[in-house]
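not sure who needs this but someone in the group chat was asking about Nucleotidyltransferase domain-containing protein from Thermococcus indicus so here u go. i didnt clean anything up, its just raw.
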Amino acid sequence: MRAERLADCIRKKLGRVSGLHSLILYGSLVRGDFVPGTSDVDFFAVLDDGADPESVLREIKPILEECSSFLNPVEVDIAWEWLSNLRDPLNLGYPYKFLTIYQRDFRENHVVVIGEDVVGMIPEYPLDELLPGRLEGILRNLERFSENRKMLHILAGETARLMAFLNGSTLAKDDVLRTLQELGDEGALQIYLAYLDGRRTEFSGEFLRDFITSRVEELKKKRNSPL
């Protein structure tokens, strides 16, 4: 299994790192739908309270990238958080998607590379508590990256995935694609297909901005509409 091969490589090459409480591999590689040249390799570094994140990341990043190279990822992504903030990442730390709205996937698809399995520390949040912040976060990033076509493609892809998730999909790529096909949203489907095909950046900024804004507003209206 590729995830275990990667974890074994890191364990062999990475000695004790001061301040690193746990290192967890998660995401598509563990889930089983990693696509070379399209997917990232995702790590979560849990730091002892008060540890210097720059020092820890500087020490572990070269080894994580070296051990991940056989996978040909787009990026080796390393998120980090202090241990005590995991008691309430929504309010105490940074509300990463994998710790909040996509937490179930993180719980079910992770490998502890080093240290303690901290997943049991993380509280479960009701979706209604998480969704408003996630939607507003997308709109804030849209404003921030409005002229950055690469980031607009990423935000549009995340919007399409969120649409599928809120309609019963898991985060597995085939499941997201199938759900978008069932929804019949041609824009969302084309954006997600471009992502699956090597993260093609073929859409105009205007199209992407309109897509993100309109779909987020639709999701807001559905959330606020009476049953």
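also The mean pLDDT is 95. if thats useful
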